[in-house]
Each structure stands twice: as C-alpha cells, then as structure tokens.
C-alpha cells in the first residue's frame, strides 16, 4: 500500500521534469521548454547526417528558417529552431517581473547577464530561467561536430563590413575576405580555418573568428569555440533565400571533401 502511494506521488513529480515532445503536422518533433509563464517550442527535423546540426534562434528571420528546412531535406542534416512569437527577442514573465532576452546572447554567464541588463529587468530569478533555457538549447549540440547557424540581417546595417578595422565587430575577427562584387550583407562567419580558406578561394565573403580576442557576448559562436564544436553562420539579408541556400551548398561541399 505504501509503495503504491509513493508511486502515485513520485510519478507526477518525475513527469514534471520531462519536457513534452510531440510531432507536428510537418512531422517535426516539438520539444516544449517552459520559461517562466511562457513556453518555448524547440522545433526539430531529423536527418541522417547527425554529426551536423542546422540552427536558427531568431524567429523573425523567416528566410533563414525556410533555407534551413529546405537544406535539411536536401542534405539530410538535422535542424532545430525556436518557435515562440516570431520576434527576434524572447519576452517572458515570472514572479511579476517581465524579462526580454536575445536568444543568441544566452550561452555563457556573461551573455545571460548582459542581455537581461540591456533590457527591462535583471534579477537572479530571470538569470536562472535564462540559463536553464540555454541549457535546453545547447543540449541539442551534444555529440555534434559542426553547428551551421542561419541568420538574416537588414540591408546596410550589420554586415561583413562590420568586421573591418575600426568596425563594431573588428575585435572578433582574425581574418577577413571581402569580395567587392558581392552584397556585403551576405557572408559566412566561421571558427574553422580550413572552411575560411575554402570559401575565400571561391571568392565568398567570409570572416574567421579570432581564437584569442573574441568578445564573450554569449552568442552561439562563442559557445562553440569554448566547447570545441566547429561553427559556421550563414548570414544573408532578409529575403535572400537562394543566396542562403547557395552558401549552404558550398559548405556541404566542403564537408564532403
Ligand atoms: Zn539572427
């Protein structure tokens, strides 16, 4: 009798800890991750090349999500993206506080603190919740050799030119190749020297992240550098779907060498 009672008490407690996973209409696996009063859905697609992972964390970057899903089907590489409110930032509440975070600034402690302080509220509770979300996302990187992130930017703002001497991002770059005939919003950012050399040879805009002087902003490229996962970000202007797919095709070719 006592054992039955214990089981009745323990099973619901245990099941609270397990994040719910379901399949949606597109046959994607959806893992629900609670975040304060909200839920972030990690939407995942399968693929047999499971040393690699495609990822998008900014849901307003719909071109990147489309490119990622199409690329995954073509090359059989798994993917994951964050589904919440189709905004860049994630806004959530807990214990009467409202927080706003950039989901590409939460993968180190410094990044979590900064992204919370940059917005409306900072508290220890908000920090713990943000860190717990980051852990659920980086869990997807377990056993991965390569992460291929997909992002979109806006014409004429952040671009490969930001990495030139004197630019806002210059400290993060140790090497840079700019093809003046290409759109400066379309480029690859990587932590991997052989990939950098391969793309440069083909006159593709590319930045190599510094191993010494990168800024710990909590972004995924920093997390990958610190955790010895190879990283490439395919960054294109919003709407440049065919360019993003073309850059992915070149990177896949590099993997197959
Ligand atoms: Zn982005």
Identify the CATH class: Alpha Beta
- How much helix, percentage-wise, in residues? 25-40%
**Termini separation (Å)?**
63 Å
SSE order: HEEEEHEEEHHEEEHEHEH
The CATH topology, please?
Answer: Aminopeptidase
Total individual domains:
1
Radius of gyration: 19 Å
Q: Which CATH architecture would you pick?
A: 3-Layer(aba) Sandwich
Beta-strand proportion:
25-35%
Overall mean pLDDT? 93
What does this entry look like structurally?
The protein has about 260 residues and is α/β, with parallel strands linked by helices. The chain has one domain: Aminopeptidase (3-Layer(aba) Sandwich). About 35% of the residues lie in helices and about 25% in strands. The chain is built from 7 helices and 12 strands. It has helices at about 1-15, 60-75, 110-115, 125-140, 195-200, 220-225, 240-255, and strands at about 20-25, 30-35, 40-45, 50-55, 80-85, 90-95, 95-100, 145-155, 175, 185-190, 205-210, 230-235. Strands 1-2-3-5-4-8-12-10-11-9 form a 10-stranded mixed beta sheet, sandwiched between helices. A two-stranded antiparallel sheet has the order 6-7. Helix 5 (about 195-200) links the parallel strand 10 (about 185-190) and strand 11 (about 205-210). Helix 3 (about 110-115) packs across helix 4. The longest helix has 16 residues, at about 1-15. The protein is globular. It starts with a helix and ends with a helix. The relative contact order is 0.14. Residues about 5-15 have low confidence and may be disordered. Zinc ion binds near residues 61 and 104.
């Amino acid at each position: 009798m006592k054992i039955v009672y214990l089981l009745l008490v323990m099973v619901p407690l245990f099941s609270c800890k397990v994040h719910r996973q379901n399949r949606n209409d597109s046959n994607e696996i959806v893992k629900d991750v609670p975040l304060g009063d909200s839920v972030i859905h990690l939407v995942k697609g399968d693929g047999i090349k499971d040393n690699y992972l495609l990822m998008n964390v900014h849901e307003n970057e719909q071109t990147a999500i489309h490119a990622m899903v199409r690329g995954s089907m073509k090359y059989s590489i798994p993917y994951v993206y964050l589904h919440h409110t189709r905004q860049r930032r994630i806004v959530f509440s807990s214990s009467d506080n409202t927080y706003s975070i950039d989901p590409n600034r939460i993968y180190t402690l410094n990044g979590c603190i900064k992204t919370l302080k940059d917005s409306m509220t900072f508290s220890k509770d908000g920090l713990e919740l943000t860190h717990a979300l980051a852990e659920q996302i980086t869990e997807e990187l377990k056993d991965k050799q390569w992460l291929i992130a997909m992002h979109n930017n806006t014409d004429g703002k952040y671009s490969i030119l930001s990495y030139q001497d004197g630019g806002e991002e210059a400290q993060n770059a140790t090497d840079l190749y700019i093809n003046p005939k290409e759109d400066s919003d379309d480029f690859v950012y990587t932590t991997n020297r052989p990939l950098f050399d391969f793309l440069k040879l083909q006159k593709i805009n590319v930045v190599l992240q510094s191993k010494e002087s990168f800024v710990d902003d909590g972004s995924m490229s920093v997390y990958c550098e610190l955790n010895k996962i190879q990283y490439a970000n395919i960054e294109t202007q919003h709407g440049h779907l065919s360019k993003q797919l073309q850059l992915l095709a070149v990177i896949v070719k590099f993997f197959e060498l």
